[in-house]
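Q: How would the structure tokens look for this protein?
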Amino acid sequence: MNRSKREQLIDKLIGEAVLSILYDNGAISTRTLIERLQTMEAAEPEEQRRNVIADVIADIRNHRLGISRRTLAPAQKPWGKESQIQQDKNVYPLFDDSPMPGSSKKH
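A: Here is the predicted structure in token form.
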């Protein structure tokens, strides 16, 4: 994969934060992730990593992590009437309700 070092660092930092929350038997949520990243930022001696952590916190607060970093397109479509209609078009029944050919049973 051709990902930048910054993207790799972002993934690593988020992974470290999530793993540390899990290690403490905490619940994973946006709030706990931000709190853990803030703790990591305060304890981080390296300025570059502190700046990246601050950017990640800002991205999480602004709900931008659902955006692909490469294409800058939403990773998931918002839930609404149009998306439900679109989903319905992708559903194919395994069994139809029509009677078997040659069967005169109605029930």
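Residues 67-76 have pLDDT under 50 and may be disordered.

The radius of gyration is 23 Å.

Upvote if useful.
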